[in-house]
Amino acid sequence: MNSRSDIKDVLRQMLAVMEEERQALAGLDLDTIMGCTANKTSLCDRLGQASNDNLDEECLSMIEAVKRLNEVNRQIRNLVAANVSSRLDALTGAPALYNARGARAGYARYSATPGT
Questions:
Q1: Residue 40's CB: how many other CB atoms inside 10 A?
Q2: Dihedral sign (CA 32, 41, 76, 63)
Q3: Dihedral angle at the C-alpha atoms of 37, 66, 28, 93, nearest 10 degrees?
Q4: N or C, fewer C-beta in 10 Å, the chain?
Q5: At what angle do helices 30-48 and 4-27 cross, to 10 degrees?
Q6: Are 76 and 83 in contact (CB under 8 A)?
């Protein structure tokens, strides 16, 4: 894929997938999120074959827009994950096992046990 037209077409598709992914993240639609992930991977593979020699201002602008949307989606995903962790902690009454403070507390608790 070396024509500027092909690159723009893939970038437009990527922008559409990013928007679809954002909506799926907001709606917690796991099937659509997984589909978007597969689509992004496929589109990235196609972009990986592109030559940087054919990039004009429009292409560069779309690349920046894709980067921004990807960052927004990453932040939304992280907020959802933090919210799920918080709710699970509230349900179990236990702090997160994967944070540094929780890991040290668990280590100290087990290492203080006689015979270990």
A1: 18
A2: negative
A3: 100
A4: C
A5: 160
A6: no
Condensed to tens digits (0 to 9), the pLDDT of residues 34-63 reads 999 999 999 999 999 888 887 899 999 999
Q: How many residues does the chain have?
A: 116
Cβ distance 4 to 56 under 8 Å? Answer: yes
- For 76-87, how does the pLDDT look when each residue is reduced to its tens digit (9 = 90+)? 999 988 988 888
Query: Which sign, positive or negative, has the C-alpha torsion 102, 108, 113, 116?
Result: positive
- The reported pTM is 0.72
Tell the residue number behind the tokens 């999120």, with chain if given: 33
DSSP conformation letters of 13-81: HHHHHHHHHHHHHHHT-HHHHHHHHHHHHHHHHHHHTS-GGG--HHHHHHHHHHHHHHHHHHHHHHHHH
- At 108, list the tokens: 């100290």
